Amino acid sequence: MTAAGVRRQQAAQTGAELKAAAVRVFARLGYLNTKITDITAEAGRAAGSFYTHFANKEALLESLLSDLLAQGDASTLTEGHSHDFSDRDAVRWHVASYWNFYRDHRVVMDALQQAAIVDPEFARRSRELSEPDLHHMADHLIRARDAGFVLPGDPLVLAAAYTALLSGFASMWQGGVGSDLGRALSDDEAIETLTSFIYAGIGGPRA
Questions:
Q1: What is the mean pLDDT of the chain?
Q2: Among candidate residues 42, 1, 8, the one with its CA nearest the CA of residue 23
Q3: Where are the alpha helices (DSSP H) in the chain?
Q4: Nearest-CA neighbor of 11 among 38, 70, 51, 66?
Q5: Residue 47: its pLDDT value, please?
Q6: pLDDT for 204
């Protein structure tokens, strides 16, 4: 490997270490309370080294979002994925994938929500990065419409509603602030409830 290649590899490793450190600090302090010096201290790096890789904390979070979106894209290549939302199993696959994905990355998902609330420009950029996924989901709904479902609205609007529902539901229940049921809400119950709600909502037959 050339010297330039080594430097690129080292830079990529440092960037990855800073992002991993940021996630750990976000988990302890919350995104809004985290300072860049908290991140560099966690990573064992000089404070100034941060700016070699990221312009600011928002840029680091945007990079984490890009990583999540890439992982989400990769998940569509796994077995069981179907584009046709006229099939309940296809809806359930997507709901389960999102539920499990949110649980695995809840710290970053919470950070994204916090950043969007206080920073309109970050919220705009986040929506821009997520737009292809929204259109991808709208395509799933169009397939259901083509199969004979009478959708209750524009597929793109419904895709946005679907995303907001899953995100809000996962944030509430996985964050431990759901209603007191007197028992735990299992993953399977959460996934089945969401699946039935969404499937009926887009015109699928009720059980």
A1: 91
A2: 42
A3: 3-29, 36-43, 50-53, 57-75, 88-104, 106-118, 120-146, 155-174, 187-201
A4: 51
A5: 87
A6: 85
Q: What is the pLDDT of residues 125-140, one digit of tens each?
A: 999 989 999 999 999 9
- Span 117-123, average pLDDT: 93
DSSP assignment, residue 69?
H
Spell out the residues 6+ positions from residue 138 whose beta carbon is closer than 8 angstroms to its own: 155, 156, 158, 159
How many other C-beta atoms are found inside a 10 Å radius of the C-beta of residue 93? 20
Q: How far apart are the first and last CA of the chain?
A: 60
- Report which of 104, 105, 129 is spatially closest to residue 116, judged by C-alpha positions: 129
Entry pTM: 0.87
Tell me which residue has tokens 């119950």. Answer: 189
C-alpha R_g of the chain = 20
Decide if 169 contacts 190 (C-beta within 8 A).
yes
Dist. CA 78–CA 13, nearest whole Å: 27
Please classify residue 112 by burial: count the beta carbons closer than 10 Å to its beta carbon, then call 0-12 exposed, 13-18 middle and 19+ buried. buried
Beta carbons of 144 and 82 less than 8 angstroms apart: no
CA separation for the pair 8, 4 (Å, rounded): 6
149/144 Cα distance (integer angstroms): 6
Quickly state the pLDDT bin for 85 (edges 50, 70, 90): very high
